[in-house]
Amino acid sequence: MKQNIKEWWSTMAEQRHLRNMLDSASRLVNDAAWQASFRELLMTPADDTLALPARNLLAALYALQGSGIISGQHDYLESPDEYIYKLQNITGKHAVLHGYELGAINNQTETVIAAQRQAVTDSAIRWHKAGGIVTMTYHANQPGTAPAWSNVSKGLSEEEFAKYVTPGNGQYNQLLAELDKVAVYLKKLAAAGVPVLWRPYHEMNGGWFWWGRKSRFRELWRIMFERYTGYHGLHNLLWVWSPNAKNEWCDNPADYYPGADSVDVLALDIYEGDYKASHHDQLWDLGRGKLIAIGENGELPAASLLVKSQNKWSYQMTWGKLLFEKNSNAVIKSFMLDGFVYNRDEYAIKIASLAAGPPEDSMLVSGLTGEYFNNMTLSGAPVLVRTDANINFSWRQSAPDPAVSANGFSVRWSGRLCPSYSESYTIYSSSDDGIRVWIDGSPVIDSWIKQSGQERKGAIALTAGKLHTLKVEYYENAGDAKAVLMWESASQPKSVIPAEALFLPE
Question: Measuring CA to CA, how many Å separate 195 from each of 69, 121, 171, 192?
Fold first, then answer.
């Protein structure tokens, strides 16, 4: 029955009518299977090859929808941890959502920008590992110009803008070059298994950015979407479309909506305390059941107002220094401690309860279980058990951990492997010293000998989306220590198996 519904759905012109149809179906068809299938379609990600960590985050946001609002705080490119920790110091609670910036606006050199973006990336990985959610904003300078605020807020005619969204000319190539620079850091996050609520080209219905109030804005959005999901294979991104709340200075947000097939979250930037129920309701109606959020705010909303009439907002993010410029400490504390507002600890508890649910509803946890032994034979009790993101270690002559010897140790990693393609894969190891690899219980690599940085390989057929069991054993004799696990197929370039493809055992 589910497949028939999906085939029927594929003939519909616009997914935005789904919510109306679901309401009708609920009244006319008293069948839980039909309604569950409609809900599944509603939650379909914009990227149909979305990696499992991002799918888990999307599912978690849907699961929490209506139960409370996730707290969030933005930080700047130059100081990616400043206000998120000031908020914690004031309230004693961490926000769940940490907002970051990848756009450069201070006319920095390329070297400085690279260092700042790397610092943002490092912070985001730490935040994810601590149980938080990562979102990123991109104040893009006009392609081909200096990374200065004047080139972000620069006025641009429709004719000039059209050059950037028309393939085959210099301006279009400049746009791609800028996108590719940012993709470097999004790829690092993908490799670390970090899903990102990606929020580019925000407030496009106002005239204060070069991409704002442009009749061909949807083409700009589509170019980035296809460049990142297709060309760069960035499948860790949830796409957040974030217009400004309708007011006298901007247009109706719906005029710039790219469509459900390239948007996961509809977010509204709300300032001056303009928390009208109509903003909430109109965005909910536009998304037809898609997630909605407050993409930016200055003044914090009253939790009591949200509970009463605006409970569909999934999260909110206060913009940088406006946290203190627009809110008193008492207001900040009141908001963060309200029962309708999720802080990071509460979010972690809720997600753990979801993960512990029935198998069909449970959520996967990224990483591999690593058991470390102070001998070369994996004997006795491990001296260390931890979760490793993936197997990409070059310890050289250092120990993996203070609890582990630098020489004469061994490791057993166990977990599950989820490929993106149904193909024959070549699995590679590069190790110093011995290494063995099993997938679904079958030996793929067996090189349990003393060796110096040798690459070994084996072949196995894998199925896209299937969780294949994985076990890797390794030992270090003396001297340099290294253990790296890679893969390659017709569609998968040779690379280290990334964190986004690895999950803890059942």
Answer: 19, 12, 30, 9
